[in-house]
Design goal:
This protein has 473 residues and is of the alpha/beta class. The protein has 15 helices and 15 strands. The strands form 5 sheets. The chain has a 4-stranded parallel β-sheet with strand order 4-3-9-10, with helices on both faces. Strands 5-6-7-8 form a 4-stranded antiparallel β-sheet. Strands 12-11-13 form a 3-stranded mixed β-sheet, with helices on one face. A hairpin with a 2-residue loop joins strand 11 and strand 12. Helix 1 packs across helix 12, helix 10 packs parallel to helix 12 and helix 14 packs antiparallel against helix 15. Bound molecules: adenosine monophosphate and zinc ion.
Protein backbone atom coordinates (compact mmCIF):
# COMPACT_ATOMS: atom_id res chain seq x y z
CA UNK A 1 0.00 0.00 0.00
CA UNK A 2 1.11 3.51 -0.81
CA UNK A 3 0.18 6.66 1.09
CA UNK A 4 0.91 10.29 0.31
CA UNK A 5 2.59 11.65 3.43
CA UNK A 6 2.28 15.40 4.02
CA UNK A 7 5.39 15.21 6.16
CA UNK A 8 7.69 13.98 3.39
CA UNK A 9 5.55 15.42 0.58
CA UNK A 10 5.72 12.17 -1.35
CA UNK A 11 3.98 8.87 -1.76
CA UNK A 12 5.49 6.23 0.49
CA UNK A 13 5.12 2.51 1.02
CA UNK A 14 2.96 1.99 4.13
CA UNK A 15 4.81 0.29 7.00
CA UNK A 16 3.16 0.00 10.39
CA UNK A 17 4.91 0.15 13.75
CA UNK A 18 3.46 -3.21 14.76
CA UNK A 19 2.77 -5.80 12.04
CA UNK A 20 -0.79 -5.51 10.68
CA UNK A 21 -1.81 -3.03 13.36
CA UNK A 22 -2.60 0.62 12.74
CA UNK A 23 -2.87 3.36 15.32
CA UNK A 24 -4.79 6.21 13.76
CA UNK A 25 -5.75 9.58 15.23
CA UNK A 26 -8.10 12.01 13.52
CA UNK A 27 -8.74 15.55 14.71
CA UNK A 28 -12.40 15.69 15.54
CA UNK A 29 -14.89 18.50 15.89
CA UNK A 30 -15.07 21.45 18.20
CA UNK A 31 -18.46 20.69 19.65
CA UNK A 32 -20.12 24.09 19.69
CA UNK A 33 -22.73 23.54 16.97
CA UNK A 34 -23.97 20.96 14.43
CA UNK A 35 -21.23 19.99 12.03
CA UNK A 36 -21.45 20.93 8.37
CA UNK A 37 -21.08 18.80 5.29
CA UNK A 38 -17.50 20.11 4.88
CA UNK A 39 -16.55 18.65 8.26
CA UNK A 40 -18.45 15.55 7.19
CA UNK A 41 -16.18 15.20 4.18
CA UNK A 42 -13.15 14.92 6.47
CA UNK A 43 -14.94 12.54 8.85
CA UNK A 44 -16.19 10.33 6.00
CA UNK A 45 -12.80 10.21 4.26
CA UNK A 46 -11.16 9.19 7.54
CA UNK A 47 -13.88 6.57 7.98
CA UNK A 48 -13.31 5.13 4.49
CA UNK A 49 -9.55 5.02 5.02
CA UNK A 50 -10.05 3.21 8.32
CA UNK A 51 -12.50 0.75 6.74
CA UNK A 52 -10.14 0.14 3.80
CA UNK A 53 -7.27 -0.62 6.18
CA UNK A 54 -9.58 -3.12 7.88
CA UNK A 55 -10.47 -4.60 4.48
CA UNK A 56 -6.71 -5.05 3.97
CA UNK A 57 -6.64 -7.02 7.23
CA UNK A 58 -5.14 -4.38 9.48
CA UNK A 59 -6.40 -4.17 13.00
CA UNK A 60 -7.09 -0.46 13.33
CA UNK A 61 -7.27 1.42 16.59
CA UNK A 62 -9.09 4.56 15.52
CA UNK A 63 -9.32 7.57 17.81
CA UNK A 64 -11.17 10.83 17.16
CA UNK A 65 -11.03 13.57 19.76
CA UNK A 66 -13.77 15.95 20.76
CA UNK A 67 -12.62 19.49 21.50
CA UNK A 68 -14.96 20.42 24.31
CA UNK A 69 -13.16 23.50 25.65
CA UNK A 70 -12.57 26.37 23.24
CA UNK A 71 -13.41 30.05 22.71
CA UNK A 72 -16.36 29.27 20.45
CA UNK A 73 -17.90 26.89 22.99
CA UNK A 74 -17.38 29.35 25.83
CA UNK A 75 -18.92 32.23 23.84
CA UNK A 76 -21.97 30.22 22.83
CA UNK A 77 -22.45 28.90 26.36
CA UNK A 78 -22.22 32.43 27.80
CA UNK A 79 -24.73 33.69 25.21
CA UNK A 80 -27.14 30.97 26.30
CA UNK A 81 -26.42 31.41 30.01
CA UNK A 82 -25.29 27.82 30.47
CA UNK A 83 -21.97 26.24 31.37
CA UNK A 84 -19.46 25.35 28.65
CA UNK A 85 -19.81 21.73 29.73
CA UNK A 86 -23.57 21.77 29.34
CA UNK A 87 -23.24 23.36 25.89
CA UNK A 88 -20.60 20.93 24.65
CA UNK A 89 -22.46 17.88 26.03
CA UNK A 90 -25.53 18.89 24.01
CA UNK A 91 -23.51 19.08 20.80
CA UNK A 92 -21.61 15.89 21.51
CA UNK A 93 -24.97 14.10 21.59
CA UNK A 94 -25.94 15.82 18.31
CA UNK A 95 -22.54 14.93 16.80
CA UNK A 96 -23.21 11.22 17.39
CA UNK A 97 -26.66 11.45 15.83
CA UNK A 98 -25.12 12.81 12.62
CA UNK A 99 -22.19 10.39 12.68
CA UNK A 100 -24.68 7.52 12.84
CA UNK A 101 -26.88 9.18 10.22
CA UNK A 102 -23.90 9.28 7.83
CA UNK A 103 -23.17 5.63 8.68
CA UNK A 104 -19.68 6.50 9.90
CA UNK A 105 -18.27 3.62 11.89
CA UNK A 106 -17.83 4.55 15.54
CA UNK A 107 -14.23 5.17 16.61
CA UNK A 108 -12.61 2.97 19.25
CA UNK A 109 -12.62 6.02 21.47
CA UNK A 110 -13.67 9.66 21.45
CA UNK A 111 -11.49 11.33 24.08
CA UNK A 112 -12.78 14.66 25.35
CA UNK A 113 -10.18 17.35 25.95
CA UNK A 114 -11.53 18.22 29.40
CA UNK A 115 -10.88 14.67 30.59
CA UNK A 116 -7.15 14.84 29.73
CA UNK A 117 -6.16 18.00 31.62
CA UNK A 118 -3.77 16.00 33.85
CA UNK A 119 -1.91 14.63 30.81
CA UNK A 120 -1.72 18.12 29.30
CA UNK A 121 -0.28 19.58 32.51
CA UNK A 122 2.35 16.85 32.55
CA UNK A 123 3.32 17.58 28.95
CA UNK A 124 3.53 21.33 29.52
CA UNK A 125 5.61 20.85 32.71
CA UNK A 126 7.99 18.65 30.81
CA UNK A 127 8.35 21.26 28.06
CA UNK A 128 8.97 23.94 30.65
CA UNK A 129 11.62 21.76 32.31
CA UNK A 130 13.33 21.44 28.94
CA UNK A 131 13.13 25.22 28.50
CA UNK A 132 11.03 24.85 25.36
CA UNK A 133 8.08 26.49 27.08
CA UNK A 134 7.96 29.74 29.06
CA UNK A 135 5.51 31.18 31.52
CA UNK A 136 4.49 34.84 31.38
CA UNK A 137 2.07 35.83 34.15
CA UNK A 138 0.25 32.51 34.11
CA UNK A 139 0.20 32.13 30.31
CA UNK A 140 2.53 29.40 29.10
CA UNK A 141 3.84 29.52 25.54
CA UNK A 142 5.79 27.13 23.36
CA UNK A 143 9.04 28.69 22.14
CA UNK A 144 9.14 27.74 18.46
CA UNK A 145 12.72 28.97 18.08
CA UNK A 146 13.79 26.13 20.40
CA UNK A 147 12.43 23.43 18.13
CA UNK A 148 14.86 23.13 15.25
CA UNK A 149 12.46 21.30 12.99
CA UNK A 150 9.59 23.76 13.34
CA UNK A 151 7.94 24.08 9.94
CA UNK A 152 8.76 20.58 8.74
CA UNK A 153 5.14 19.58 8.15
CA UNK A 154 3.87 22.73 6.49
CA UNK A 155 7.17 23.05 4.63
CA UNK A 156 7.65 26.61 5.78
CA UNK A 157 10.62 28.27 7.44
CA UNK A 158 10.00 30.13 10.69
CA UNK A 159 11.13 33.43 9.16
CA UNK A 160 8.68 33.01 6.25
CA UNK A 161 5.69 32.03 8.33
CA UNK A 162 2.87 34.52 8.47
CA UNK A 163 0.49 34.83 11.35
CA UNK A 164 -2.39 32.74 10.07
CA UNK A 165 -6.03 32.66 11.02
CA UNK A 166 -5.47 30.41 13.99
CA UNK A 167 -2.28 32.09 15.28
CA UNK A 168 -3.12 34.57 17.99
CA UNK A 169 -1.13 37.77 18.32
CA UNK A 170 -0.08 38.41 21.92
CA UNK A 171 2.38 40.91 23.38
CA UNK A 172 3.62 38.39 25.92
CA UNK A 173 5.06 36.13 23.24
CA UNK A 174 8.77 36.13 22.42
CA UNK A 175 7.93 35.32 18.81
CA UNK A 176 4.54 35.84 17.14
CA UNK A 177 4.54 32.17 16.14
CA UNK A 178 4.88 30.99 19.73
CA UNK A 179 1.60 29.46 20.75
CA UNK A 180 -0.29 29.08 24.01
CA UNK A 181 0.03 25.80 25.85
CA UNK A 182 -1.81 27.12 28.87
CA UNK A 183 -4.10 30.15 29.06
CA UNK A 184 -4.52 32.09 32.26
CA UNK A 185 -8.06 31.99 33.70
CA UNK A 186 -10.48 34.73 32.70
CA UNK A 187 -13.81 35.55 34.27
CA UNK A 188 -16.64 33.61 32.64
CA UNK A 189 -14.37 30.83 31.37
CA UNK A 190 -13.92 27.29 32.70
CA UNK A 191 -10.68 26.85 34.62
CA UNK A 192 -8.48 24.19 36.10
CA UNK A 193 -5.67 24.36 38.65
CA UNK A 194 -2.13 24.22 37.33
CA UNK A 195 1.47 24.91 38.45
CA UNK A 196 1.13 28.32 36.70
CA UNK A 197 -2.16 29.25 38.34
CA UNK A 198 -5.72 28.55 37.26
CA UNK A 199 -6.43 28.46 33.57
CA UNK A 200 -7.30 26.26 30.62
CA UNK A 201 -5.30 24.44 27.96
CA UNK A 202 -4.48 25.77 24.50
CA UNK A 203 -6.06 23.94 21.58
CA UNK A 204 -2.96 22.25 20.15
CA UNK A 205 -1.76 20.62 23.36
CA UNK A 206 -5.10 18.83 23.66
CA UNK A 207 -4.48 16.65 20.61
CA UNK A 208 -0.87 15.86 21.57
CA UNK A 209 -1.96 14.74 25.03
CA UNK A 210 -4.92 12.68 23.82
CA UNK A 211 -3.07 11.05 20.93
CA UNK A 212 -0.16 10.02 23.15
CA UNK A 213 -2.37 8.80 25.98
CA UNK A 214 -4.71 6.83 23.75
CA UNK A 215 -2.28 5.51 21.14
CA UNK A 216 1.30 5.94 22.38
CA UNK A 217 4.16 8.37 21.79
CA UNK A 218 4.53 7.41 18.14
CA UNK A 219 1.51 6.52 16.05
CA UNK A 220 1.07 5.33 12.47
CA UNK A 221 -1.40 7.85 11.00
CA UNK A 222 -2.50 11.30 12.08
CA UNK A 223 -5.16 12.92 9.91
CA UNK A 224 -7.37 15.97 9.55
CA UNK A 225 -8.49 18.60 7.07
CA UNK A 226 -6.00 20.69 5.09
CA UNK A 227 -6.66 23.71 7.30
CA UNK A 228 -5.07 21.86 10.20
CA UNK A 229 -1.61 21.45 8.63
CA UNK A 230 -0.64 24.85 9.91
CA UNK A 231 -0.57 25.77 12.68
CA UNK A 232 -2.43 22.96 14.44
CA UNK A 233 -0.52 19.90 13.25
CA UNK A 234 2.78 21.76 13.00
CA UNK A 235 2.35 22.70 16.65
CA UNK A 236 1.27 19.23 17.69
CA UNK A 237 4.49 17.87 16.21
CA UNK A 238 6.64 20.55 17.85
CA UNK A 239 5.30 20.13 21.37
CA UNK A 240 5.06 16.32 21.24
CA UNK A 241 8.49 15.72 19.72
CA UNK A 242 10.16 18.35 21.90
CA UNK A 243 8.70 16.56 24.91
CA UNK A 244 9.33 12.90 24.05
CA UNK A 245 12.24 13.08 21.63
CA UNK A 246 10.33 10.56 19.48
CA UNK A 247 8.61 10.99 16.15
CA UNK A 248 4.96 11.87 16.84
CA UNK A 249 3.31 10.31 13.76
CA UNK A 250 4.78 8.41 10.81
CA UNK A 251 2.16 9.32 8.19
CA UNK A 252 0.24 12.57 7.98
CA UNK A 253 -2.90 12.49 5.85
CA UNK A 254 -4.81 15.65 4.97
CA UNK A 255 -8.23 16.00 3.41
CA UNK A 256 -9.03 18.57 0.74
CA UNK A 257 -11.75 21.09 1.41
CA UNK A 258 -15.32 20.78 0.49
CA UNK A 259 -15.88 24.13 -1.20
CA UNK A 260 -18.84 26.18 -2.26
CA UNK A 261 -18.06 28.03 -5.48
CA UNK A 262 -14.35 27.37 -4.90
CA UNK A 263 -14.43 28.81 -1.40
CA UNK A 264 -13.96 26.64 1.69
CA UNK A 265 -17.22 25.75 3.35
CA UNK A 266 -17.00 27.14 6.85
CA UNK A 267 -19.09 28.35 9.71
CA UNK A 268 -17.35 31.70 9.81
CA UNK A 269 -18.05 32.47 6.13
CA UNK A 270 -21.66 31.37 6.59
CA UNK A 271 -21.56 29.34 3.34
CA UNK A 272 -22.43 26.01 4.84
CA UNK A 273 -25.08 23.31 5.00
CA UNK A 274 -25.24 21.15 8.08
CA UNK A 275 -24.83 17.42 7.55
CA UNK A 276 -28.28 17.10 9.08
CA UNK A 277 -29.91 19.33 6.44
CA UNK A 278 -28.33 17.30 3.65
CA UNK A 279 -29.34 14.01 5.27
CA UNK A 280 -32.98 15.10 5.09
CA UNK A 281 -32.78 15.08 1.28
CA UNK A 282 -30.14 12.49 0.50
CA UNK A 283 -29.28 9.09 1.91
CA UNK A 284 -25.98 8.43 3.64
CA UNK A 285 -25.10 6.16 0.70
CA UNK A 286 -25.64 8.97 -1.82
CA UNK A 287 -23.66 11.50 0.21
CA UNK A 288 -20.79 9.05 0.67
CA UNK A 289 -20.77 8.14 -3.02
CA UNK A 290 -20.68 11.82 -3.97
CA UNK A 291 -17.78 12.53 -1.60
CA UNK A 292 -15.76 9.42 -2.45
CA UNK A 293 -15.66 10.15 -6.16
CA UNK A 294 -13.09 12.87 -5.71
CA UNK A 295 -9.70 11.91 -4.31
CA UNK A 296 -9.60 12.66 -0.59
CA UNK A 297 -6.76 15.18 -0.97
CA UNK A 298 -8.29 17.23 -3.79
CA UNK A 299 -10.75 20.07 -3.38
CA UNK A 300 -14.37 19.32 -4.18
CA UNK A 301 -17.21 21.70 -4.94
CA UNK A 302 -20.49 21.00 -3.21
CA UNK A 303 -23.24 20.50 -5.76
CA UNK A 304 -26.86 19.39 -5.45
CA UNK A 305 -26.77 18.40 -9.16
CA UNK A 306 -23.99 15.95 -8.38
CA UNK A 307 -25.86 14.70 -5.32
CA UNK A 308 -28.92 14.08 -7.51
CA UNK A 309 -26.80 12.23 -10.07
CA UNK A 310 -25.32 10.15 -7.29
CA UNK A 311 -28.77 9.25 -5.98
CA UNK A 312 -29.29 7.48 -9.33
CA UNK A 313 -25.82 5.94 -9.28
CA UNK A 314 -26.33 4.58 -5.74
CA UNK A 315 -29.65 3.09 -6.92
CA UNK A 316 -27.80 1.05 -9.54
CA UNK A 317 -25.65 -0.61 -6.90
CA UNK A 318 -28.65 -1.10 -4.64
CA UNK A 319 -30.70 -2.66 -7.44
CA UNK A 320 -28.01 -5.19 -8.19
CA UNK A 321 -27.73 -5.99 -4.47
CA UNK A 322 -31.51 -6.59 -4.38
CA UNK A 323 -31.37 -8.79 -7.48
CA UNK A 324 -28.58 -10.90 -6.02
CA UNK A 325 -30.42 -11.25 -2.73
CA UNK A 326 -33.58 -12.31 -4.56
CA UNK A 327 -31.77 -14.89 -6.66
CA UNK A 328 -30.04 -16.30 -3.59
CA UNK A 329 -33.34 -16.39 -1.72
CA UNK A 330 -34.97 -18.21 -4.63
CA UNK A 331 -32.32 -20.87 -4.23
CA UNK A 332 -32.39 -22.13 -7.81
CA UNK A 333 -29.02 -22.45 -9.48
CA UNK A 334 -27.41 -24.07 -12.49
CA UNK A 335 -24.07 -25.09 -13.94
CA UNK A 336 -23.60 -22.58 -16.77
CA UNK A 337 -20.23 -20.88 -16.96
CA UNK A 338 -20.27 -17.13 -16.35
CA UNK A 339 -18.35 -14.83 -18.74
CA UNK A 340 -16.72 -12.92 -15.90
CA UNK A 341 -14.54 -13.84 -12.93
CA UNK A 342 -15.49 -11.98 -9.75
CA UNK A 343 -12.02 -12.51 -8.27
CA UNK A 344 -10.58 -10.20 -10.93
CA UNK A 345 -12.74 -7.33 -9.72
CA UNK A 346 -11.45 -7.85 -6.19
CA UNK A 347 -7.87 -7.64 -7.51
CA UNK A 348 -8.58 -4.53 -9.57
CA UNK A 349 -10.36 -2.83 -6.68
CA UNK A 350 -7.51 -3.55 -4.30
CA UNK A 351 -4.83 -2.46 -6.78
CA UNK A 352 -6.68 0.80 -7.37
CA UNK A 353 -7.33 1.70 -3.75
CA UNK A 354 -3.90 0.55 -2.56
CA UNK A 355 -2.53 3.56 -4.41
CA UNK A 356 -3.07 6.31 -1.84
CA UNK A 357 -6.69 5.35 -1.15
CA UNK A 358 -7.84 6.00 -4.69
CA UNK A 359 -11.54 5.52 -3.97
CA UNK A 360 -12.65 7.22 -7.21
CA UNK A 361 -10.83 4.54 -9.20
CA UNK A 362 -12.18 1.83 -6.86
CA UNK A 363 -15.71 3.10 -7.43
CA UNK A 364 -15.11 2.99 -11.19
CA UNK A 365 -14.36 -0.71 -10.80
CA UNK A 366 -17.51 -1.25 -8.75
CA UNK A 367 -19.58 0.32 -11.54
CA UNK A 368 -17.85 -1.84 -14.16
CA UNK A 369 -18.73 -4.80 -11.98
CA UNK A 370 -22.39 -3.73 -11.69
CA UNK A 371 -22.64 -3.36 -15.47
CA UNK A 372 -20.92 -6.69 -16.17
CA UNK A 373 -22.91 -8.68 -13.60
CA UNK A 374 -26.18 -7.17 -14.83
CA UNK A 375 -25.24 -8.36 -18.31
CA UNK A 376 -24.73 -11.88 -16.95
CA UNK A 377 -28.07 -11.78 -15.15
CA UNK A 378 -29.91 -10.68 -18.29
CA UNK A 379 -29.09 -13.94 -20.07
CA UNK A 380 -31.53 -16.70 -19.22
CA UNK A 381 -28.81 -19.15 -18.18
CA UNK A 382 -28.64 -20.38 -14.61
CA UNK A 383 -25.26 -19.82 -13.01
CA UNK A 384 -23.79 -21.75 -10.08
CA UNK A 385 -24.69 -20.57 -6.58
CA UNK A 386 -21.01 -19.73 -6.07
CA UNK A 387 -21.24 -17.00 -8.72
CA UNK A 388 -24.14 -15.18 -7.05
CA UNK A 389 -22.58 -15.60 -3.63
CA UNK A 390 -19.19 -14.16 -4.64
CA UNK A 391 -20.91 -11.35 -6.56
CA UNK A 392 -22.81 -10.47 -3.41
CA UNK A 393 -19.62 -10.82 -1.40
CA UNK A 394 -17.83 -8.36 -3.71
CA UNK A 395 -20.52 -5.72 -3.18
CA UNK A 396 -20.68 -6.51 0.50
CA UNK A 397 -16.92 -6.20 1.04
CA UNK A 398 -16.25 -3.17 -1.18
CA UNK A 399 -19.40 -1.09 -1.64
CA UNK A 400 -20.80 -1.77 1.80
CA UNK A 401 -17.91 -2.47 4.16
CA UNK A 402 -15.26 -0.15 2.73
CA UNK A 403 -17.26 2.68 1.19
CA UNK A 404 -20.68 2.48 2.82
CA UNK A 405 -22.39 3.25 -0.50
CA UNK A 406 -24.87 0.39 -0.19
CA UNK A 407 -26.42 -1.10 2.94
CA UNK A 408 -27.52 -4.72 2.75
CA UNK A 409 -29.13 -4.62 6.19
CA UNK A 410 -31.36 -1.79 4.94
CA UNK A 411 -32.37 -3.89 1.91
CA UNK A 412 -33.74 -6.73 3.99
CA UNK A 413 -35.50 -4.23 6.25
CA UNK A 414 -37.03 -2.48 3.23
CA UNK A 415 -37.85 -5.75 1.54
CA UNK A 416 -39.15 -8.35 4.02
CA UNK A 417 -40.34 -10.27 0.95
CA UNK A 418 -36.76 -11.46 0.48
CA UNK A 419 -36.69 -13.24 3.83
CA UNK A 420 -40.25 -14.53 3.47
CA UNK A 421 -39.59 -15.69 -0.08
CA UNK A 422 -36.45 -17.35 1.08
CA UNK A 423 -38.44 -19.57 3.51
CA UNK A 424 -41.08 -20.36 0.89
CA UNK A 425 -38.42 -21.25 -1.62
CA UNK A 426 -36.65 -23.48 0.87
CA UNK A 427 -39.94 -25.37 1.33
CA UNK A 428 -40.40 -25.77 -2.42
CA UNK A 429 -36.80 -26.98 -2.74
CA UNK A 430 -37.53 -29.51 -0.02
CA UNK A 431 -40.50 -30.86 -1.97
CA UNK A 432 -38.47 -30.96 -5.19
CA UNK A 433 -35.86 -33.06 -3.42
CA UNK A 434 -38.52 -35.39 -1.97
CA UNK A 435 -39.96 -35.80 -5.47
CA UNK A 436 -36.51 -36.66 -6.80
CA UNK A 437 -36.05 -39.23 -4.04
CA UNK A 438 -39.47 -40.75 -4.83
CA UNK A 439 -38.49 -40.97 -8.50
CA UNK A 440 -35.21 -42.67 -7.67
CA UNK A 441 -37.18 -45.18 -5.58
CA UNK A 442 -39.45 -45.68 -8.59
CA UNK A 443 -42.35 -44.39 -6.50
CA UNK A 444 -43.84 -42.54 -9.49
CA UNK A 445 -47.23 -42.23 -7.83
CA UNK A 446 -45.69 -40.07 -5.12
CA UNK A 447 -43.42 -38.06 -7.43
CA UNK A 448 -46.38 -37.25 -9.71
CA UNK A 449 -48.53 -36.38 -6.74
CA UNK A 450 -45.94 -33.83 -5.53
CA UNK A 451 -45.73 -32.26 -8.98
CA UNK A 452 -49.50 -32.10 -9.45
CA UNK A 453 -50.25 -30.82 -5.96
CA UNK A 454 -47.63 -28.09 -6.38
CA UNK A 455 -49.15 -27.15 -9.75
CA UNK A 456 -52.53 -26.88 -8.05
CA UNK A 457 -50.92 -24.27 -5.78
CA UNK A 458 -49.58 -22.40 -8.82
CA UNK A 459 -46.03 -23.73 -8.44
CA UNK A 460 -44.84 -25.31 -11.69
CA UNK A 461 -41.80 -27.56 -11.91
CA UNK A 462 -39.59 -27.83 -14.98
CA UNK A 463 -37.03 -30.60 -15.32
CA UNK A 464 -33.92 -29.22 -17.09
CA UNK A 465 -30.46 -30.65 -17.68
CA UNK A 466 -29.24 -28.49 -14.73
CA UNK A 467 -31.88 -29.95 -12.39
CA UNK A 468 -35.44 -29.04 -11.51
CA UNK A 469 -36.43 -25.37 -11.44
CA UNK A 470 -39.79 -23.84 -10.63
CA UNK A 471 -41.93 -20.85 -11.44
CA UNK A 472 -44.69 -19.41 -9.31
CA UNK A 473 -47.74 -18.11 -11.18
P1 LIG B 1 -13.40 21.91 13.31
O1 LIG B 1 -14.59 21.52 14.13
O2 LIG B 1 -13.52 23.23 12.62
O3 LIG B 1 -12.09 21.81 14.09
O4 LIG B 1 -13.29 20.85 12.11
C1 LIG B 1 -13.35 19.46 12.26
C2 LIG B 1 -12.70 18.80 11.05
O5 LIG B 1 -13.34 19.19 9.82
C3 LIG B 1 -11.22 19.17 10.87
O6 LIG B 1 -10.51 18.01 10.48
C4 LIG B 1 -11.25 20.20 9.76
O7 LIG B 1 -10.03 20.24 9.07
C5 LIG B 1 -12.37 19.67 8.89
N1 LIG B 1 -12.99 20.67 8.00
C6 LIG B 1 -13.47 21.89 8.33
N2 LIG B 1 -13.99 22.51 7.24
C7 LIG B 1 -13.83 21.67 6.19
C8 LIG B 1 -14.17 21.73 4.79
N3 LIG B 1 -14.81 22.77 4.25
N4 LIG B 1 -13.86 20.66 4.02
C9 LIG B 1 -13.24 19.58 4.54
N5 LIG B 1 -12.90 19.46 5.84
C10 LIG B 1 -13.19 20.49 6.67
ZN1 LIG C 1 -6.15 18.06 16.57
Amino acid sequence: MIIYNTLTKKKEEFHTIEPQKVRMYVCGPTVYDFFHIGNARSFIMADMIRRYLEFRNYEVKFVMNLTDVDDKIINRANENGISAKEHSETYIAEFFKDIDGLKIKRANSYPKATEYIGEMLELISNLEKKSVAYNVNGNVFFDVAKFQEYGKLSGKKIEDLEIGARVEANEEKRNPLDFALWKKAKIGEPEWESPWGNGRPGWHIECSAMSMKELGETIDIHAGGNDLIFPHHENEIAQSEASTGCKFANYWIHFGFLNIKDEKMSKSLGNFFTAREILKKYSAETIRLFLAQTHYASPLNFSTELLDANTKAAEKIKNLAIKLDEILAKNVFGNSTPNIKIGEYFTQFTNAVDDDFNFPKGIGIIFDFVKDVNRELQTEKLLPKEFYLTAKEFLFETAQNVLGIVDFSQLTKENPEITRNSKENDLIKLLINLRLEAKLNKNYALSDKIRIELANLGIFLQDTKDGTTFTIK
